[in-house]
C-alpha cells in the first residue's frame, strides 16, 4: 500500500482511524499508569495510619502534662518518705522515736543490708531489712506494730513472732519483727 | 392459453434490452444503501474509544482524589509530628514516674498487714482459746494456743477454731490452707495445746 493509498484510506475512514489511534494512546497511557493508583492507595493507607497515630498521640496526651505534674509531685512526696541506706543513725532514730511514742522497750534494732535487685532490673528503690525486738503489753506492742506498718517510711512486715514472756497471761509480751523499709541509695 | 404461475422476474426484465443508453456515472451517484458497514465500524470504534477514555478518566480522577488525600494527611503529619514527638517524650517521663509509684505500691502490698490480721484473729478467737504464740512468716502463719476445758471437748473446739479461721470473711481469702497441725495435752495443766498452720495463697494482692 503506497502512501497515497494510505492517505486515501485514512481520509475515507477518518473516524475509525482516529478512534484506533486514540485507543492505542489510551492503552499505552493505561499500561504506564496502571501501578500508580495501587501505589498511591498504599501510600495513602500508610499516611492515614501514621496520621491517625499522631492524632491519637495528641488526643491521648491531652491532659498528660497535668497528670505528669501531679505524678511528679506525688513522687516527691513518696521520696520524702524514703530512708537512705547509708544513714544508719537516722534510720535507727526512727525506731527509737516509735519506741518512745509507744512505751515499749526495744532491744537490739538492727539494720541489714539492702536487698539486691532482681537480675536484669534496675529498680528506683531498694528494700532494706531490719530486725526489731520489743517488749511491752499487748496494747503497746500492737501500737508499735501499727506505727511500724503505717509510719513515716514505707514498710512491710516479713516475719513477726509474738510470745508471752511471763507465765501469767495479760502480762508482758515479746515481739520479734523482721521487716523491710523502702530506701533510696545514698548519693 | 394457460396462465403462468410464475412472476416476471427482474432477470427477465434485464433480458429486455434498454430502450435508451445507460449514461449514469455510478461513482458520483448518491448512496442508496440506508446503513453502511462504515457506520457500524465507526460506531463500535467510537463506543470503544469513549469507554476506554472514560475508564482512564475515572482512574485518573481516582488517582487525583487519592493524591489529594495523601496531601491532606501529609499536611496533618507535618503539623502533628513535632507535637507528637514531644508528647511521646513526655509519656516516657510519665512512665518512668509511674514505675516509681508502682514500685512503692507493689512493695507495700507484697505482704499482708499483720496488725490487721492480729486484730482480726483476736476478734474471732473464742474466749476459751488463749494464744501461746503467734508466728507470722513469709509464707504462713503459725498459731499456737491452749484451749481451756476438758480435753475431749477442747478437741472439738480446736477443730471448730480451724474451721472458723478457714471460713472467716477477712482471713479465709488470704489462706490457701488452714491445717490443725498438732493437738497435745499439757501434762502439767491438763489442757489441750494446739498448733494451727495457715498457708498464704500465692499471688493474692494484700490489702
What layout of secondary structure does this protein have?
The complex is a heterodimer of chains A (187) and B (207).
Chain A: H1 3-12, H2 14-33, H3 36-60, H4 64-79, E1 83-84, H5 88-102, E2 105-114, E3 126-136, H6 138-149, E4 155-164, E5 173-184
Parallel strand pairs in A: 1-5
Antiparallel strand pairs in A: 2-3, 3-5, 4-5
Helix pairs in contact in A: 5-6
Chain B: H1 10-14, H2 37-108, H3 114-124, E1 129-136, E2 140-147, H4 151-167, E3 175-185, E4 192-200
Antiparallel strand pairs in B: 1-2, 2-4, 3-4
Task: Explain briefly what this protein structure is.
The complex is a heterodimer of chains A (187) and B (207). By secondary structure, chain A is of the alpha+beta class. Helix content of chain A is 52%, strand content 24%.
Question: How does this structure look, described?
Answer:
The complex is a heterodimer of chains A (187) and B (207). Chain A is of the alpha+beta class. Chain A has 6 helices and 5 strands. In chain A, strands 1, 2, 3, 4 and 5 form a 5-stranded mixed β-sheet that branches. In chain A, helix 5 (88-102) runs antiparallel to helix 6 (138-149). The radius of gyration of chain A is 41 Å and the shape is rod-shaped. In chain A, 22% of the residues are buried. With 207 residues, chain B is α+β, with helices and mostly antiparallel strands. Chain B is rod-shaped. Chain B contains 4 helices and 4 strands. Chain B has a 4-stranded antiparallel β-sheet, with helices on one face. Helices cover 51% and strands 17% of the residues of chain B. The longest helix of chain B is centred in the middle third of the chain and has 72 residues, at 37-108. Chain B has helices spanning 10-14, 37-108, 114-124, 151-167; strands spanning 129-136, 140-147, 175-185, 192-200. Chains A and B meet through helix 2, helix 3, helix 4, helix 6 and strand 4 of A and helix 2, helix 3 and strand 1 of B.
Amino acid at each position: 500500500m503506497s502512501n497515497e493509498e494510505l492517505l486515501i484510506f485514512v481520509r475515507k475512514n477518518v473516524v475509525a482511524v482516529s478512534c484506533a489511534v486514540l485507543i492505542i494512546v489510551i492503552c499505552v497511557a493505561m499500561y504506564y499508569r496502571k501501578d500508580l493508583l495501587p501505589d498511591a492507595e498504599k501510600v495513602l493507607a500508610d499516611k492515614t495510619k501514621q496520621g491517625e497515630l499522631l492524632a491519637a498521640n495528641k488526643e491521648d496526651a491531652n491532659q498528660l502534662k497535668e497528670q505528669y505534674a501531679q505524678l511528679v509531685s506525688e513522687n516527691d512526696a513518696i521520696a520524702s518518705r524514703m530512708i537512705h541506706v547509708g544513714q544508719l543513725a537516722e534510720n535507727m532514730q526512727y525506731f527509737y522515736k516509735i519506741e518512745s511514742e509507744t512505751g515499749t522497750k526495744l532491744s537490739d534494732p538492727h539494720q541489714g543490708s539492702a536487698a539486691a535487685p532482681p537480675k536484669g532490673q534496675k529498680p528506683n528503690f531498694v528494700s532494706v531489712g531490719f530486725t526489731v525486738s520489743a517488749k511491752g503489753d499487748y496494747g503497746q506492742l500492737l501500737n508499735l506494730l501499727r506505727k511500724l506498718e503505717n509510719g513515716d517510711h514505707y514498710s512491710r512486715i516479713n516475719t513477726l513472732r509474738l510470745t508471752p514472756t511471763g507465765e501469767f497471761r495479760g502480762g508482758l509480751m515479746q515481739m520479734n519483727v523482721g521487716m523491710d523499709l523502702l530506701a533510696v541509695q545514698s548519693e | 392459453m394457460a396462465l403462468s404461475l410464475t412472476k416476471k422476474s427482474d432477470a427477465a426484465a434485464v433480458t429486455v434490452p434498454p430502450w435508451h443508453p445507460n449514461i449514469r456515472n455510478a461513482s458520483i451517484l448518491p448512496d442508496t444503501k440506508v446503513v453502511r458497514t462504515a457506520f457500524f465500524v465507526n460506531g463500535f470504534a467510537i463506543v470503544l474509544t469513549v469507554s476506554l477514555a472514560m475508564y482512564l478518566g475515572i482512574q485518573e480522577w481516582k488517582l487525583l482524589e487519592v493524591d489529594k488525600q495523601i496531601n491532606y494527611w501529609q499536611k496533618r503529619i507535618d503539623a502533628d509530628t513535632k507535637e507528637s514527638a514531644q508528647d511521646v517524650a513526655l509519656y516516657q517521663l510519665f512512665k518512668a514516674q509511674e514505675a516509681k509509684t508502682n514500685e512503692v505500691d507493689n512493695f507495700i502490698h507484697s505482704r499482708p498487714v499483720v496488725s490487721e490480721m492480729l486484730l482480726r484473729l483476736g476478734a474471732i478467737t473464742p474466749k476459751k482459746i488463749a494464744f501461746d504464740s503467734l508466728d507470722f512468716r513469709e509464707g504462713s502463719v503459725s498459731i499456737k494456743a491452749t484451749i481451756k476445758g476438758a480435753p475431749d471437748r477442747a478437741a472439738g473446739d480446736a477443730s471448730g477454731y480451724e474451721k472458723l479461721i478457714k471460713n472467716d470473711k477477712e482471713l479465709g481469702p488470704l489462706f490457701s490452707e488452714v491445717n490443725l497441725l498438732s493437738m497435745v495435752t499439757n501434762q502439767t495443766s491438763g489442757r489441750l495445746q494446739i498448733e494451727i498452720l495457715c498457708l498464704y495463697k500465692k499471688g493474692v494482692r494484700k490489702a
